[in-house]
Design brief:
Layout: H1 3-24, H2 35-66
Helix pairs in contact: 1-2
């Protein structure tokens, strides 16, 4: 697996985990953090990581064509 594919996969898994927290853990009370807010942060990080992986995949193809 290439680094770009790994980034896309890890980002997608993080995004889905964050979505699950946001949707289903809203009623859980923890003393330090709110799971729903952590889910939103995880979705943002997962989306950014997936976009980074897509960028690396596209950039890798473009750089191979130029050389």
């Amino acid at each position: 697996m290439t680094r770009a594919a790994g980034d896309v996969l890890a980002g997608a898994v993080t995004l889905v985990a964050g979505l699950g927290l946001w949707l289903f853990a809203g009623g859980v009370d923890l003393p330090v953090v709110t799971p729903a807010k952590v889910g939103v942060v995880m979705m943002c990080v997962g989306g950014a990581e997936a976009l980074l992986g897509l960028y690396r995949a596209v950039r890798g193809v473009a750089s191979r064509e130029v050389v």
